[in-house]
Every structure is written in structure tokens, then in C-alpha cells.
Amino acid sequence: MARTAQETAKVLSDIYDESFDNDSYEQFQVGWPELRSIAGVQKLTTTYLNQVDKHLRDLEMLLVVCDSFLLVARQLDLSHARSMPARLIEQYLPDAEELVDPGDDIPEDEDDSF
């Protein structure tokens, strides 16, 4: 039986709280087939994944979609990531003539399956 996105997010949160090889409370990878099994669905749509991520964010967690797996983490797990220095931001700013409307590059919302 298919789970709602909220139910799937709760399961992922519960799994996060489990201990893996003596490492507890750490980000973890879940494969596409495993997440489909947990969700009880044959296909995971972009809409469904976005809803799972929304419910995880309510729990201060994230669902990061990658090509061959998904990553489940608490936002605090990623707080140790290095910050981008202002000098690099300035170095990569576009020239005034390169500026375009931000909406120009946004593709239409598609409901892809994975």
C-alpha cells in the first residue's frame, strides 16, 4: 500500500535515528529502489519527492536527490560545509550585459519519474 509523502518522510526520519555500524545520527544514502519500496510505489515523481522533502524540512532534515541515490540528512549535518568566500562570489559575478531575467532559464514544471 502506498504511503503518503508525509508518512514516507516520517519513516526516513525514524531510519535516521537508527544506528548503522555504530554510527548513529548521521546522514545516510538510500537507493532509488529502496525508497520506492519504503514509499510503496512503483515510480517516484518529482512532485512526490518535493513533498517528502517539504515534510523532512519541517523536521529540520533534507532529502538530496542524486543520480544513483538519495541522501537523507539533518540540516545540522551539513553545517560543517565550507563557506564560499566573498572574493569568489565577486570573481564569478556576471557582467552587466550578461544579466537576464531569472525566469528565462527556469524550465516548465515537469513531473518526471525516477
Walk me through this protein's architecture.
- This protein has four helices and five strands; from the N terminus they run H-E-E-E-H-H-E-E-H.
- It has helices spanning 5-16, 32-39, 46-58, 86-91; strands at 19-20, 23-24, 28-30, 61-65, 70-74.
- Helices cover 34% and strands 15% of the residues.
- The mean pLDDT is 86.
- A three-stranded antiparallel beta sheet has the order 3-5-4.
- It is an alpha+beta fold and 114 residues long.
Layout of strands and helices, then pairs:
Layout: H1 5-16, E1 19-20, E2 23-24, E3 28-30, H2 32-39, H3 46-58, E4 61-65, E5 70-74, H4 86-91
Antiparallel strand pairs: 1-2, 3-5, 4-5
Q: Can you give keywords for this protein?
A:
single chain; 114 residues; alpha+beta; 3-stranded antiparallel sheet; two-stranded antiparallel sheet; 4 helices; 5 strands; extended
Low-pLDDT runs of 5+ residues are none
Taking the sheet with the most strands, its summary is: 3 strands, antiparallel
Spatial gap, N to C terminus = 19 Å
Structural class: alpha+beta
Give the SSE string: HEEEHHEEH
Q: Could you tell me the mean pLDDT?
A: 86
Radius of gyration: 18 Å
Shape: extended
Helix tally equals 4
Q: How large a portion of the residues is in β-strands, by DSSP E?
A: 5-15%
| Biggest sheet, spatial arrangement of strands | 3-5-4
Could you estimate the helical fraction of the residues in percent?
25-40%
By DSSP, the count of extended strands is 5
